[in-house]
Amino acid sequence: MSITRSPIQPCLWFDDTLEEAARFYTGIFPNSSIDHLSRYGDAGPGTPGSVMAGEFTLDGMTFRGINGGPAFPFTEAISFSIACRDQSEVDYYWDSLADGGEESVCGWLKDRFGLSWQIVPVRLYELVADPVPERAMAATRAMLGMRRIVVAELEAAADAAVGTAAPG
């Protein structure tokens, strides 16, 4: 059987929580599954039966993971961005991924495993690229003052910058 997938896949280094993380993430994202977990055997360097490595799919994207120990924790230098259709999707991913983690600013958070996520409504991209510079700057300033991105507040800031609602 041949599996078609991208030749480029993220590989995440966990201390010793790969299986827990894979279950957490696949419980949040649609079209997700734990595809394979390799466990140490009796002769392996790890505890027999404990997870060594594995693959899981989140909304169609395959991730590899290893339990490599505490030497290399996650940092914000690598993050995953979720483009959300609307505020309810922003709220869902924010609440789910921040549970047990740490909220940051400008739509960023760290989940309980220390992995960074950007929860971004598509509307933010539209507003910061608005052809009216005052609207774009106002939306950007509003975003910079937020933790979780709130679409209605972005739109209100953009509209207030020119004293009227956006055409459309």
Automatic annotation (TrEMBL):
This is 3-demethylubiquinone-9 3-methyltransferase. It holds the Pfam family 3-dmu-9_3-mt. It comes from the Bacteria. One of its GO terms (biological process) is methylation. Keywords: Methyltransferase, Transferase, Ubiquinone. InterPro entries: 3_dmu_93_MTrfase, Glyas_Bleomycin-R_OHBP_Dase, PhnB-like. It comes from Nocardioides simplex. PANTHER family: PHNB-LIKE DOMAIN-CONTAINING PROTEIN, PROTEIN YJDN-RELATED. Transmembrane segments: none annotated. CDD domains: PhnB_like. The lineage of its organism: Bacteria, Bacillati, Actinomycetota, Actinomycetes, Propionibacteriales. GO terms for molecular function: methyltransferase activity. The keyword Transferase applies.
